[in-house]
Specification:
Elements: H1 2-26, E1 29-32, E2 38-40, E3 44-46, E4 55-61, E5 66-69, E6 80-86, E7 99-103, E8 107-111, H2 112-121, E9 130-140, E10 143-148, E11 152-157, E12 170-173, H3 185-188, E13 191-192, E14 194-196, E15 201-208, E16 211-217, E17 224-226, E18 236-240, E19 245-247, E20 251-260, E21 268-274
Length: about 280
């Protein structure tokens, strides 16, 4: 009986090993058509929060197709691309907020805001020029490490990430911008301004039309600011419920709004509008 049991176990082990070997032989392997090569439109970038919507740098790379081999291979896998940022050429071990998705395209224009977010996510030194590295990855499934380009160095001056001092939001409203809010989703927000840590004010760089404008808090008229229309480039004081502010020459302007107080306790502010 003992011998029969031993023989049965031996046969079972052999069959299991054979199945394992066969599975390894049949497993599909992935082969890229070419090595990835990354090129940037600039190798030195200075980032400023006021320029958040603008282009910081554009990266391009060659397309890569993948072929499968092995008896389990069916069809070539779908490929997408990621740009990955690191402080060192060999520092791509952690990948999280420092990934900039590029979809299936072979080019990606990165805004000032998106690049700065990725750099802050890896703890880059801000306020002075430092070296960072970018690479592109061809991603299949969840694998964002295997098929990557050589890192490309660039010099960047980033600004520190920060949060506004309170939860208030402010928007520029009126025909000088996107029109008076009508209660519909398309116009309710007006031109939303962002908190600028360096200036300690809400700012926006945008095209303005000839016409009136005001500033309102939290998508409502309960707290709004207006004031004089003359001398905007030098700064004018604003008061709660103040007069419409008129833009007399259409153009692209930087609008800076410093607010005194918060919530329902806003007492005024200072507005500067410069080309």
């Amino acid at each position: 009986m003992k011998n029969l049991l031993t023989q049965a176990l031996a046969v079972a082990f052999a069959l299991t090993a054979l199945a394992s070997c066969k599975k390894d032989e049949d497993k599909a392997t992935v082969q890229p058509s070419a090595a990835l090569t990354l090129t940037g439109s600039a190798n030195s970038v200075v980032l400023a929060q006021i320029n958040d919507p603008q282009t910081a740098v554009t990266y391009t790379w060659n397309p890569v197709q993948f072929s499968l081999s092995g008896t389990e291979a069916t069809k070539a896998p779908a490929v997408s691309y990621q740009l990955q940022v690191a402080k060192k050429a060999d520092g791509f071990g952690y990948l999280g907020p420092n990934i900039i998705d590029a979809g299936t395209s072979t080019t990606k224009t990165i805004t000032v805001e998106d690049l700065n977010k990725a750099l802050n996510a890896i703890g880059i030194t801000t306020g002075s020029p430092v070296q960072a590295f970018m690479r592109v990855a061809a991603v299949i499934g969840d694998d964002n490490h295997t098929f990557v380009s050589a890192p490309v160095a660039f010099t960047v001056t980033a600004y520190p990430a920060c949060l506004p001092p309170n939860t208030d939001t402010w928007a520029l409203v009126g025909p000088a911008g996107a029109g008076w809010p009508s209660g519909t989703p398309a116009t309710e927000d007006g031109l939303t301004m962002k908190w600028n840590c360096a200036l300690k004010a809400y700012t926006i760089r945008t095209a303005l039309n000839v016409g009136p404008m005001k500033f309102r808090q939290n998508k409502a008229w309960a707290v709004n600011l207006g004031g004089p229309s003359a001398g905007l480039a030098n700064g004018v004081p604003l008061t709660p419920g103040g007069a419409d502010i008129n833009i007399t020459t259409a153009g692209t302007y930087t609008v800076k709004l410093a607010v005194d107080g918060s919530g329902t306790a806003v007492t005024g502010g200072m507005l500067t509008v410069t080309p």
